[in-house]
Amino acid sequence: MQQAIVTCTTCTRLREYCERVAREKRAAYREEIYWGRPVPGFGDPHARLLVLGLAPGAHGANRTGRMFTGDSSGMFLMRAMHAAGFANQPLSRDVHDGLQLRDAFILAAVRCAPPDNKPLPDEIAACQRHLDAEWRALPDVRVVIALGRLAFDAFWRTMRARGIAIPSPKPVFAHGAESSAPGAPHLIASFHPSQQNTFTGKLTPDMLAGVFQRAATLIAR
Question: Could you read off the pLDDT of 107-119 as tens digits, one per residue?
């Protein structure tokens, strides 16, 4: 399953962009060898919490080969996960940093870094099969935290594909909003920990920590 993700070449635009970023590199990482390939999920295979993101960062996961690793978004996220007991440390620097997720697994709606962090609709659709495959291998998931509107929509798209009826009216994305449907995991929405949100104060550490604390409370019931 992970091999199918890593070797995927379906989306030409995304593959060309990731490979170009891996060649040209950012000055701060010019001595490093970039991953430059699609990025699979990672975490505890018995996780009850699924964290669903957007896509790898061009100089984060596209460089390190692990979701939410090596950039400010990953550090911001991991501090919140660690505080709620879902990670053994508040750092996510590289694949050799000793990070272990506890009762949590991280996936993304798109597995290649997109230009300007904006995947096209057909690219999102093409990557749905990878999301479905990895998610189905996580039978214990009870709560999902969707980081951003695109992940929020990916959650409901996945539920629809499984034959689960979407509530009417359809739940609206908002930070901290919760929703559920018979047969589906409980969903908590959150703003994405991108620099655009964290540097402007749209998403604060306390806001994200609160989402993960809420998830821990739901799982403990």
Answer: 999 999 999 999 9
Residues 66, 38: Cα–Cα separation, whole Å: 10
Q: φ and ψ at 87, to 5 degrees?
A: -145, 150
Domain residue spans in the chain? Answer: 2-220
Exposed, middle or buried, 218 (CB in 10 Å: 0-12/13-18/19+)?
middle
Could you report the per-residue pLDDT of 12-53, keeping only the tens digit for each?
999 999 999 999 999 999 999 999 999 999 999 999 999 999
Closest CA to 106 of 35, 185, 46, 52: 52
Preceding peptide of 90 cis, ω within 30°: no
Scanning the structure block, which residue is given the tokens 């901290």?
176
Q: List the end-to-end C-alpha distance of the chain, in Å, as a whole number.
A: 32
According to DSSP, the residues that pair with 179 across neighbouring strands are 187
According to CATH, the topology of domain 2-220 is Uracil-DNA Glycosylase, subunit E (3.40.470)
Q: How far apart are CA 152 and CA 157, in angstroms?
A: 9
d(CA 93, CA 211): 23
85: number of Cβ within 10 Å: 14
What is this structure's pTM?
0.96
